[in-house]
Design brief:
By secondary structure, the protein is mainly alpha-helical. It has 3 domains: 1-183, Up-down Bundle (Ferritin), CATH 1.20.1260; 185-314, Ferritin, CATH 1.20.1260.120; 318-367, LysM domain (Membrane-bound Lytic Murein Transglycosylase D, Chain A). The chain is built from 13 helices and 2 strands; from the N terminus they run H-H-H-H-H-H-H-H-H-H-H-E-H-H-E. The protein has a two-stranded antiparallel sheet. The longest helix is centred in the middle third of the chain and has 34 residues, at 116-149. 40% of the residues are buried. Residues 312-317 have low confidence and may be disordered.
Length: 367
């Protein structure tokens, strides 16, 4: 059972991340409608404004009550968020309250809470309001998706994107509902379910990026395609690891390595889009949006890594890795931030550092 302080901190951190994501979902929907569907655009805008109001309430409550780790993770705001919002307003004409972003960027964190009982009641009421409003957003997304799939509606958003953002909204509601009951992610199985979810999200992000790049961006297209395939494989590995803690350790470590890579790719992409160095139809705020989600997933994976038996959470124990098609020891060493020499030193079965085979299991020394 969560303490009052943990309930407040966990709820507010969830809001600072997810309410921003939700209001941006509404903005992306609004921007995708044609002039024929002004009524739908107006409904999306109304949802965006209501979600922004809830986010502003969360920001007002959060100062000094959330953790420094959360604020430093880049999942609430990044160095690009404000500029991405301003650029998106310029391109779309859709208003965004950037004062909320400025306030969120200036938050301090230590996880301490004064007036615990009063703040708990305020946070609990905020959770209830968010559950109701995001449930309305889910219903809106479901209606749009159904109309698209039956050719009753056209938007410039992919059907998969609408399904994707609906799944994220449902996760938010589920997590808030658990918090209202005093429950937080505590077990390996809970953690693995989150890994399955977010690995799929990362795979779809790569697919969306691939589909929104200009056809001339061959190199970025190939990188996006590789990430889509890699995270699809990790999703399948995570599903296969249910009930198998040693296998989960492997999946978590591989997911960590892959998520660091895609986070760096998204960060470079966001900067490139803001500086007009990438040809695409990716809104600047969408680029920053997927970067924040990668930052969020990284912090979750680091937390899950500490839950796996045999891990001390600081990377000293080493992990198992199954060689995949196209792998070399050099590429594996880069992925796990180590060296070929260190990998060979803990794998006596490797007699030639140039020869490894798909399916071979090797040990990766932790940093």
């Amino acid at each position: 059972m969560l303490s009052k302080e943990a309930f407040i901190r966990s709820s507010l951190e969830l809001h600072l991340f997810f309410l921003r994501i939700m209001k941006e979902h509404a903005l992306f929907l609004e921007g995708g409608f044609t002039p024929k569907n002004r009524d739908l655009a107006q409904r999306a805008d109304a949802l965006k404004e209501q979600l922004a109001n809830l986010l502003a309430q969360a920001v007002a409550l959060a100062d000094g009550r959330v953790s420094r780790d959360f604020l430093q993770s880049g999942e609430a705001v990044t160095p690009f968020t404000l500029r991405a919002e301003e650029a998106t307003v310029f391109f779309t004409g859709i208003p965004i309250n950037t004062d909320i972003t400025r306030a969120e960027a200036s938050l301090s964190g230590n996880g301490a809470t004064n007036n615990v009982t009063q703040v708990e009641a305020q946070v609990r009421a905020l959770n209830d309001m968010a559950i109701r409003l995001v449930s309305e957003l889910i219903n809106f997304k479901t209606s749009l998706l159904n109309d698209m799939l039956t050719c009753k509606l056209f938007t410039f958003n992919y059907p998969l994107l609408i399904d994707h953002i609906r799944r994220e909204a449902r996760l938010f509601v589920d997590m808030l509902t658990q918090l209202q009951r005093g429950v937080e992610v505590e077990t390996l199985r809970d953690a693995l379910e989150q890994e399955i979810f977010w690995n799929r999200i990362m795979s779809e992000h790569a697919e969306f990026i691939r589909g929104l790049l200009d056809p001339t961006e061959d190199e970025l297209f190939a990188v996006s395609n590789n990430f889509a395939n890699e995270f699809e494989q990790l999703t399948q590995l995570a599903r296969a690891a249910v009930g198998n803690p040693p296998q989960q350790e492997l999946v978590t470590d591989q997911s960590l390595a892959a998520t660091r890579e895609i986070r760096n790719f998204k960060r470079q992409g966001t900067e490139g889009i803001l500086n007009c160095n990438i040809r695409s139809i990716i809104l600047p705020l969408l680029a920053d949006h997927v970067l924040r989600e990668a930052n969020h997933y990284l912090r979750l994976l680091q937390k899950f890594d500490q839950m796996v038996p045999g891990s001390n959470g600081n990377g000293d124990n080493g992990t198992s890795y199954v060689v995949r098609q196209g792998d070399t020891l050099f590429l594996i060493a880069q992925r796990f931030n180590t060296t070929v020499e260190r990998i060979v030193a803990v794998n006596s079965q490797i007699t030639d550092s140039n020869v490894i085979s798909p399916g071979q299991r090797i040990r990766i020394p932790r940093r």
